[in-house]
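[job 0412] stage=complex_fold ligand=GCB status=START
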Amino acid sequence: MALIILNKDIETTRGMLYPRESETREVRALDGIWNFVRSDEANPTQGIRDGWFNDDLSKSMPTIPMPVPASYNDITTEQALRDHVGTVWYDRKFFVPRSWGQHQRVWLRFGSVHYEAFVWINGQSAIKHEMGHLPFETEVTHLLKYGAENRITVMCDNALIQTTVPQGKISEVANDQGVTIIQSYTFDFFNYAGIHRSVHLYTTPKTFIEEVEIKTNLSEDNSVGTVNYSIAVNGTAANEADNTLYARLQLYSREGILVANATSDSKLLGSLKVENVKPWWPYLMHPDPGYLYELEIKLYAAKEQLLDVYRLSVGLRTLSWNNTSFLINGKPVYFRGFGRHEDADVRGKGLDNALMTRDFNLLKWIGANAYRTSHYPYSEESMQFADQHGIMIIDECPSVDTENFNQVLLDKHKSSLEQLVHRDRNHPSVVMWSIANEPRTGQLNADTYFQFVANFTRSLDSTRPITAAIAVPSKDDKAGRHLDIISFNRYNAWYSNTGRLDMVTQRVINEATAWNYKYDKPVIMAEYGADTLEGLHLQPSYVWSEEFQAEVFSQHFKAFDALRRQKWFIGEFVWNFADFKTAQSYTRVGGNKKGVFTRARQPKAAAHLLRQRYFALGREMDKCNLPSDLFTYIADVGSNVQHDSSDL
Ligand code: GCB
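[job 0412] stage=complex_fold status=DONE, emitting structure tokens
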């Protein structure tokens, strides 16, 4: 293991726009049922050596049907596929219209494949990408047959080692028949794998809008907004005659009214001014949260020749922070939310629009205003949803339980953040970057390592604060000084002092205070909670029961209320939104059960308690309205009725 870690430059990626149709672009999803082969674990490169990509997979191996998008692990009834380590293969056929072969370019884009993907089109290598949960794309214009059938083949490798993000270990261990390959990892969620998000083919003109970066600002009284834009173009016209290109931008309100416009010069950057602006506000902080404008960008060549059109949603807001607070549009924010997972029965981490929509409905029902994308980037579709509903996001890269800091790991960790910032920088819902979850920041090298990671992230985006969710005791931590906001995770009455409800409140107060004392920065409790088996009721409360979860929460609420009086305590995040699958372990009953909702997205008893708190906080801080069903009617007890223990 290298002891000296250098802050080297990494191979840069581009800002990737979400594929959208327009006057100049077409989009086609390749989602559906693909053909699938599980490789022999002992011979993971067989498919490459035998050229399985040269023809239909079914000519090389028996295939089974596999849905895309979805994790492959829980689709069949086979333990061998659920626990498979190494490579799997997918393929399918598709037609490309003849019209796509003329005067345009075609791109292939994956929303995410976990963990490493190798892609061929008609037997020719198209792209390779390492890193789950993040999109990648390549031009396939030259690889496609137009007006004819094509084949796409994907090899996906789920192996995690000490230099992947996240880290894991592969070992060979004896079993009853001989030896077997085991994937182990310390993080607490199942290493689901496969083609997790949509696969798109899309067209662009020969010269097109490749990147757009938006930064917004508001005047001090929030009445005038500014949208600063910068556009990068790809294409022949761009190379040959840069100086003749320009862009026309038009900003439309939600109601479709033109509120600002601008024409750029050939540098393709500038700003638009919006009078009487409607700022983007978080849910419950304003009666009209998540207000989005639509920015229409038209790229022109000389003589008014329209080349490309791309539209994106824009929310206007400002963020600012100091050593006591975090403000949005000049107003202090108190986060009330969740750590979450992309996880569901059968489909694992595969994108599911029904589930995603249900989750946002539950977030709004419970009065949450934020979540952290623990412990990896979530789907682009969910980021768009969060923009629309005013849910604030702490956007986390896939670094979890990071240890044994080394150069290769650092380079990949930085790359994961670059890809994340490039993907998500235009989302108003993203209010903070989380550069890691529970890194071993007491270790040698953690200081330099996180200095490099934090500064690199800041160099990509200085408009958002940086945090990391830390679990080492504050006295041992070496990373916090490189962050803007300190987040800490702790399981009082669960992992420490199990069952002791009388040993929560003061400990939470003490720990948060210690973090603030050490770094003089705002502090968030990013995880707390208790595993809870739905339907298990025990009075007096006892670990794993629904009563216990509610009481653990309540003991934390007391601490949070005491801490809120210190201005620097700025948020509470329950672990977890819903129950989720983990690796097998005797501490997990069918997975991690710390969900406030079950895996089927139904509330446990504590959900009702949390709902009352989150709305009460919204009422106190942001004067939000309370839902009419927040408190259940019990009895009309007059205010002068006195009760004491003699009533019993
Ligand atoms: C943590 C981790 C999270 C786990 C959780 C738990 O500290 O950040 O990934 O799931 O604890 O329930 O143990």
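The chain is about 20% helix and 30% strand.
[job 0412] exit 0
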